[in-house]
What does this fold into?
Amino acid sequence: MAALQPLDDAADRVVGLGVDDQPLADTDAVSVAAATGRRGARGRRGRKGAAFWLAVGWLVLVAFCGIAATWLPLQDPNTPNVIARLDGPNPDNLLGADALGRDQLSRIVHAARVSVVVSVSAVGIGMVVGGVIGTAVGYVRGRTETTVMAAVDVLAAFPGLVLLLVLLAYVGRSLTIISLVIGFLSIPIYTRVARANTLAVAQREFVHAAHTMGARRSRILFREIIPNVVPPVAAFALVAMGLVIVLEGSLALLGLSIEPPDPTWGGMIAASKPHLDEAPHTALVPSAAMFLTVLSLNFVGDTLRRSFDVKDSGL
Amino acid sequence: MRQLLIRLPMMVATLLVVSFLTFLLTTLLKGDPAVLILGPEGAQDPQAVAAVREDLRLDDPLPTRYVAWLGDAVSGDLGRSYRTGQSVTEAIGERLPVTLEIGVLAITIALAASIPLGTLSAFRAGGAADRVITGTSFGLLAVPSFMMAILLIWILAEWLGWLPATGWVRLTDDPVENLRTAIMPALALAIGECAVYTRLLRADMITTLQQDSITMARAKGIPTRRILFRHALRPSSFSLMTVVGLQVGAIIGGAVIVEQLFALPGIGRLLVDSILQRDLIMVQGVALVIAISFVVINFIVDLLYTVLDPRIRHGRAATA
It folds into this structure.
């Protein structure tokens, strides 16, 4: 079994998209600081830079658009206007118009709703269910852990997008079903992340101390372990939201997301393809919205994870 | 060899579970699968429905059906599409080479770019080149393959007009044209992968470069290039390899999208088309083949460790 260790370790790192996970970042921060001495521990931690708050600001804006799109003073996102067809940015349509002359600004703002709903609910399901399972088996260990992790490995043996497509083909599709299915499919990832973090926390001194002082197992779990497992899992969840937004975009591109004419970023990108030469802005505007959102999620998630990290925090 | 003996039964077990889950898909359907397979018009004919029920053994109990289905699948018979009449195995056989070519090309490009980039980045960790590489790759993680595909079509096909925007020419028909149609889809997949690989290799390489053996090699006056690519690369490449294996899943997913955007006759497009036409037998077959390839590829990657890492080869614990 010991021989398999590096495999499991590496597998844990890439759960998700290959956005670096714990072990990676450890070597990252520690060795860069050691090797160069240029950016010491203080530069990387403590006060979060302007870029961090810019990213947070963008995410707040997107969330706000997702919630309030209907009440904002915008044109109707689904009303075609033949005259404005494929117009570039102008005073009437600040971000231009698409192939049916619909206002792009209004459409990307309304499309934020789909991204917000799908990512928040899918990540919520995956994080709660996977987090509970992962923490539980990581603390209890033994045969339960072996069984559960074997099941997780099998579920993860399907390429995600393919499984998603196939499931949607069989159970039908709507915003709710898409969110539920993505949430269900992401349970294994959170189980792995939560378990890995639980294993690490369970070996820390304060847990041993609590044990030595005669704390009950339930107390150790709820007062010592869970408070220390939630932050890194939540940080991972932010990164995972980016993945979900991309997944929804992929579905839209295949014509398998929510029904038109309601806008989604992926759907807008897909619709722009035939007009790329005459109106590249129809592709660039939704791409930029999606790119900035995913980038911000990755950046904020990564920064938070680093600041929650034991080795980085100097303890 | 010992590794093979441990992992082979595990892989077979995984494959069995995977095949059972794929098989169970038809039970997720609401209503009579035979009616759904034939579609609204076809289902008017009770005889046709009865024939499908007979054909799929829908009246048998589930375990019996699974065993029969698995038996057929093992002998290469995944059924026949009720929409096109084509056998599933044949359809997959026709389209697999396209997806395979794109995938292999993408991984090759990604590795060819990420190994030098990751090494350079680690060697000069904290320097200007490192910051540019790390920053760019972090940004690229936020660019999904479909966005990259649209961007490439816009720049390389519409703007510069260097490459055809869509279409596919078979390798056997015209190798040069084949490459011209394959390069853009492969690039769309490769660029995101390259970012993942580069970041991973950089992190592992930084750790390796701090080891005594590297200091020793330097002290002996071995040229830097040789130290980096001969001494440091191999011990730094283990997690990279695992990830390349695991990312095959992402590549397959990406291929589904990219084949759609570039109108390539690959297995991903077959899957999407079958889903859109509700050709459920075809969906089931394609899903099974994709899942099996994914499991087998990761099994092979696991075995490759044995070749690369002497500590595992000799059955001792890895202490890194």
